[in-house]
């Protein structure tokens, strides 16, 4: 996975270099991207929104806005 300022996640298939774009996430710039071992990935956005997605269908299973995230 890769992500950027456009709030688009790119899934890369490293065997054939095909890309799958997941767009319209709509929460500002992606500032953090994390992967789990259990078929999930999460994003934190510049507006302090946290979203967790399922790899198999790229559907958001958690969408929490206005998080107070202090690092």
Which SSEs are present, and which pair or pack?
Elements lengths: L1 E2 L5 E5 L4 E5 L7 E6 L4 E6 L4 E5 L5 E5 L7
Antiparallel strand pairs: 1-2, 2-3, 4-5, 5-6, 6-7
Provide an overview of this structure.
- The protein has 71 residues and is mostly beta strands.
- Helix content is 0%, strand content 48%.
- It is built from no helices and seven strands.
- A four-stranded antiparallel beta sheet has the order 4-5-6-7, with no helix packed on it. Strands 1-2-3 form a three-stranded antiparallel beta sheet, with no helix packed on it.
- Strand 2 and strand 3 form a beta hairpin.
- The radius of gyration is 12 Å and the shape is globular.
- The two termini are 23 Å apart.
- The model has no long low-confidence stretch (mean pLDDT 86).
The helicity comes to under 10%
Strand order of the largest sheet: 4-5-6-7
Strand content: over 45%
Average pLDDT number? 86
Low-confidence spans: pLDDT under 50, at least 5 residues? none
**Computed Rg:** 12 Å
The topology string of helices and strands comes to EEEEEEE
Distance N terminus to C terminus? 23 Å
Number of helical regions: 0
Q: What sort of overall outline do the alpha carbons produce when their principal axes are compared?
A: globular
